Sequence to fold (893 residues):
Amino acid sequence: MNRRLFTLAATALAALPVSTPSLAADELRVMVHSSFALPKPLLAQFEAQNNIKLAIIKGGDAGEMLNKLILTRAQPVADAVFGIDNTLVGKALAAGVLEPSLPQTASASEATLGPALAPVDYGFVTLNYDKASVATSGLALPKTLQELTLPAYKGWLVTPNPATSSTGYAFLLATISGLGEDNAFAWWAQMRANGLKVVKGWSEAYYTDFARNKGAYPLVVSYATSPAAEVFYSKEKITESPTASLNLHGGVFRQVEGVGLVKGGSQREAALKFVDFMRSEPVQQALQTEMWMYPARSGTARAEVMRHAAEPAAFEAPAAQVIASQGAAWVARWTKVVLK
Amino acid sequence: MTGSATRSVRRSDLHTNLWLALLPAAALLLLLIAPLARLALSGFTGEAGWPGAAPGTWSLWMPWQDDYLRWRVLWSLAQAGITCVLAFALGLPLAWVLARFEFAGRTLVLRLLMLPFVVPTLVAALGVLALWGPRGLLSGWLGINLQDTPWLLLYGNLFFNLCMVVRAGVDALGQVNAREVAAARSLGATPWRAFWRIEWPAIAPWLMSSLCLVFLYCFAGFGLALVLGGQRFATVEVEIYTLVAHELQIGQASVLALWMLGLTGSVALLYALLEKRLAAPSRVEPVLRRPPQGMAQWLALLAALGALFFICALPVLAIVWQAWLAGWATWVGVFDAEVRAALWNTLRFSAMALALATLLGVLHALAAQRSVFWRAAAFLPFVVSPVTVAFGLLLLYPGWTASLPLLLAAYAVLAYPFVAKSMAAGLDSLPAHLLQAARTLGASPQRTFWRVTLPLLRPALRRGMAFAAATALGEFAVTLFLSRPEWATLTTLIYRRLGHPGAASLDQAFVLASLLMLLALLAFLLIEWPVAERDVAGRPVERQLQTGDLRHA
Fold:
């Protein structure tokens, strides 16, 4: 009886291996976070020069991307990974998803991420404010994080959730590093009472709730380069950014992003080429206005628009080991203090 | 036929049944029961299972000791309960109006009540956003902001579940004996009294069993809560997903999943008990439908249709409207390589899953013909949440996490009960004499199956496949867990676009959602429409649909 049923079953089963995308021998799979962007011609040039096809896989927010690598490490989904930063490198190494060492090319003057990752760019997570709404409020900008807990600043700040956003996570780490753990959580508790808004990711915070984008919050946890991006993307030509960074003690985190090889990935040679590519002059130039980060290689010319994005003079940069060992507990504590 | 011959036939039937049951049994065991057992194990031992997973402290009782998690569990229960109350309060009068009044387009309205079941969860969530979200049609018009309130989620829940309760109510009211109602009325009972004393006792078990399902769906709901719940009003399922995908807190997630399993299991048990109490529909003389008479009845009818339109149709229309507003440029621009790949993924995954689900479903139905136990087993994939299943699979088969066979197998296991249930119902209604005639005329059992049984069951098979296809097309939770990034389907792509709330990405999300809805509808029509009118026995098909056939993630 079951001849046709078996035929059906056999067809269904036979379809499986056929349809599994066969890994083209000359394809390099690169896992990146959702903010990755480079000009298409540059990527095409890399493909042509190395005679390889690039498969760029966007893995979501940086933290989510790393978790994907960890959960799929038995069958690596990528050969190279870009976007693991100093907040995540410890976790990545502990989980064993990275090739432990790369031929190092970074110069001594650069911030490093250890032997597994070559630094590509860096940036600063810091507060941004909307100049117009601060002006209409008639209030002076707060000079310390503590001032933000005053009733006058009630309902001023929107932040991405550290549990789901690497931007929010970096800001949490900055407060802990700058204020000390207990003070930091006390500050977060006061902020909660003072109308702090928490959203899932940076883009929601910035594009929905930040006053610059018709939201209700004059302050947002964002990047030191965001004011420059505002100028770059503005419809009319403007000479001054409508937003600016507000660099407060304990509110600035230096983030360094790197590129590395995924353990168990194939295409080792091409992956190493990709590492060099990400540190090459054209990419270092282009990433400034594509991903809004500062180039890691010292001596790279700054894009003209980056003059609207001054680097903060002081910042927090806690050690990767500390972050790796305590980060999860801090996020859990934060969730309790701010959300529960 | 002599007694010994009968026995030997029975024995060979038993053998056939065992063989038939082999594949579905293996699928259930390997893809459902084993992962759940694994989950239970790590819930009990609190073992993390992944190197680099964050160390944390947890215990089995943690969801009740920790304020934050307790709120999640309690809110999940509360929103399901509130939805049940709302769906009941609105659904009963709506069902009564639809069941008792005859009006032009009634059949169409009843058929449209099926619409929410083919709408993917994520599309429904977008529909709610299109109406009530930050830049929504109604919220903008009325100037209110429902963001960060529980109303978005409750509205989304109602969108899916109100239709189900109404359908169950209409079906149940069709079982009420007209003579009893007439007797009550002629003995002087007011319509109200007649309703409460005659109609209500007859329909209550049906409504209760559908409310059980509503509770189950809402409690284990994922997609709606993920998009509409925000930070505060998300459900336990969302919390499990966040713990795994964002925080890699496997131990905590297992404990939560274990509790979910226990809670949904108890509700499912309650449902099974209620279902068992439902008497098989006896032949009754249904209450005659009459055209509405007088102002009040017309108003009631209009109010009912208006309410249905507002809750069940408006979100869908809002998506289409928003997608239309997005403009031609967005429609053209949206078909970039990423979307084309996602479209292709959605189609091929669904097709492959459908083939597998059909095979499993047919075998299961055939095996279940004489076994109550097997019948109940078909419910299993309905009562566990997709998030729980996906998470269990992830823990049990770490080496297979990013492999297509596992993804498709999970799709198929979650979708095949539709086929199994529909086929089982079809087999029950099969007139035995036709098969006996075929056998008497010398056809082998195999030949009888292919030439008689299967052709007669084609409508049932198509219906089951239609729902299975719609489920696969809209699959979301399992895809988020088990898929490789490059295997993005339309649902995951929509979710990703939602994560970038610029106006342009929201427009794109609406366009993609329209596309997905169109696909689900198309699949449904392609498989279901040509035979939608009559089933084997010539009864209108609507009658046959049980609320238990319907499910969404």
